Amino acid sequence: MGTGGVFTAGDSRQEFCASANQACNNGVQLTMQSQSEVRDSFKLLVFASLLTLSLWFIPFAGVITYPIRLLVTFIHETGHALAALATLGGVNRVALDWGGSGVTFTKGGLGFLISSAGYLTTTLYGAGLLLLLRRQRNARVAAIGTGALLLLITALFGGNIVAWLAGLVFGAGCLLLGLKGQPKLVHFCMSFLAVQCLLNAFYDLRTLLYLSAFDPAFPTDARNMSEATGGFLPPVVWAAGWALLSTVVVVGTLVVYYRSLRERASMPETVLPTLIAGHSANAAHPHI
């Protein structure tokens, strides 16, 4: 805009250059932020996976992973409780034992959904975390949401001292992590928990398959499922079905995770020309 409101070509060129420079700067910043976030997310996932796998082969590492084992079991039992409530049933109590096992006492609801919910909840929670953690800023939301849910389930349905200790410690810990933790620490801890949930789900399903095949009378979720459906299928079939479904969920999650990271890494290359074109159009057709 020239003096007295008269538009000049020189002003237009200056505005265009300034707009283009600003677009370039914005595009460079977007590129750096996106690529950095992609690298960080992928590195954390790889590191959390390698750490989890290495702990399986280190003597006495079970002492380190034992608390995580209790947390994963609590998430498993929370799945049963939520399924009961979602199907208009009730929950009497949720109990854990020092060995890392758990049990949820329910009444009413749809038995076949309640029985299926435990292992599938652990898998879906871990898979959902992985997808959510593609962006570092989502880690805080995941930690706070997990902590709040654990504390709520503990307060409403905690059935013994182990459940209360696990629920309160992990619930408060997740809340504190989400509210006060450094972003990278929160991101790593939640990534580690996601990997632990997925691997523990498969480990538990392997045990379930063994028990269902060689000791079908042993009280398991697969046996409960068989009874809830009138014995139409034996426990081992249900265990195998859950294992297959969990495998599909995990493979699908990893595919989506990988593709989304690749898309986000290349996205700024197309965003930058769009930004410049938009600013060019505005400079070419100024508002007088």
Q: Nutshell version of this structure?
A:
With 288 residues, this protein is mostly helical.
Mean pLDDT: 80
Helix-and-strand structural type: mainly alpha
Strand % is under 5%
Number of helices: 8
| Helix-strand topology string | HHEEHHHHHH
Poorly predicted ranges = 1-9, 23-33, 269-277, 279-288
Strand order of the largest sheet: 1-2
Taking all Cα atoms into account, the compactness measure Rg is 26 Å
Description of the structure:
With 288 residues, this protein is mainly alpha-helical. The protein has one domain (39-272). It contains eight helices and two strands, in the order ααββαααααα. It has helices spanning 9-55, 62-86, 111-132, 138-157, 161-180, 183-214, 221-228, 235-284, and strands spanning 90-96, 102-107. Strands 1-2 form a two-stranded antiparallel ribbon. It is globular and about 55 Å long.
Brief descriptors of the model:
288 residues; mainly alpha; two-stranded antiparallel ribbon; 8 helices; 2 strands; globular; disordered N terminus
